[in-house]
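Q: Can I see a sequence and its folded structure?
A: Here is a first one.
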Amino acid sequence: MTAFEPDAFEGLSVELRDDGVGVVLFNRPEKFNALTTMILGVLTRAFRALGDREDCGAIVFSGVGPAFCAGMDLTDANPAAPDRDPVHVAFSAMRDAVSCALAMREIPQPVIAAVRGPAVGGGFALAAAADIRICAPDAAFMAPFVKLGVTIGDMGLSWLLPRLIGAGAAAEVFYTGGTIGAQDGLRLGLVQHVVDDPVQSSITMAAKIAARPRLGVQMSKELLNASIGAGGLREHLETEMRSQVISLMTEDHRAALRAFASRRGGTA
């Protein structure tokens, strides 16, 4: 087993097992694995690093503790310098975020998301960017964007979710700011399995995938991505970023953010 140095991927636990399974874990349980701009950059590097390893056949992606990912950490303000245009700052931060979803789709190894507890906002998007989702009974996929006065454009979720559950079901979730539980996710096709221990089940499946001839698996992922038009994801992300940045500049968003942060303790 190859365990990467903790300071190489700060905020994560990353290892490559002897059976060819890469394991990437959010490791901020005290923050319910909330995202920061730094974490997103580190996560992208982790996926790219494993993606470059010929001895890695599949990747399991999960979080330490009771939550998969509680969304963006609103205390990670990352304030702009006074002389920088806030729109440019927002675009820069969002480009860092979308790079992570692109990495998950573009690396050759299949990625399995093992989801326990809430996957909120950006956490939902990252789970959707995986190839397969295996969940605990308490998994909850939450899309609170409209409640925050912003668009659904977050790390490709507006492109991915309709392809996973259909446009109508995605519209209901997006327009209401709703939640998909584990059993509803299974019914809709978002979730492939609901089990008591999603991490172990994901590792078992990943080991089975890693034992298959690598080229066949990798080309199969490429073909599946092509079949759903994944080549258009990068272009769609540009549209997402524009819509999200515009909505981030509104007073509606600022007011909703203040109210949401006071209730939720700093994550969205």
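Q: Show me another, different protein.
A: A second, unrelated one:
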Amino acid sequence: MLQAVIFYLLAIATVLSGLAVITRRNPIASAVSLVVTFFFLAALYVMLGAHFVAVTQVLVYAGAVMVLFVFVIMLLNLRGTDPRELPDLAPRGLVGLAVAGFIGMGLVVSIDALRLVDMGPVADDFGTIQQVGTIIFDGTYLLPFEVASALLTVAMVGAVVLAKREI
């Protein structure tokens, strides 16, 4: 029971910090909220028994990728927008909230329907270094892994090129 309560509290905290990422006007505050989201996700991974994935989450995403994001933000010299310059977004927010509510209801119904299927026990090697390495590098997810690394490299080079134009 206590484990379920902690899991739901972490899940709620993850969603709230994720919402903070998209609602912050200051890019640095948004990046800090993203780091907090990554740490909450790592805590969820620990609760699910995937300790290696949790450590990788903290080291790679909360560490290296966020340093890259902050570097790009600082390099591009982005600033938060002045609240007086923003249009009134209340009608759009209500429409977005209604759409999110319908999607949420659909997810609840879908998840409830999935409970009819027995998923079986979790494998003993779930989340271990050997399993993760085998899945990534044996060819199953090698192409998406390489595409993600190339995409991050292109994004960083693009940010540097954009920053050089303004200087």
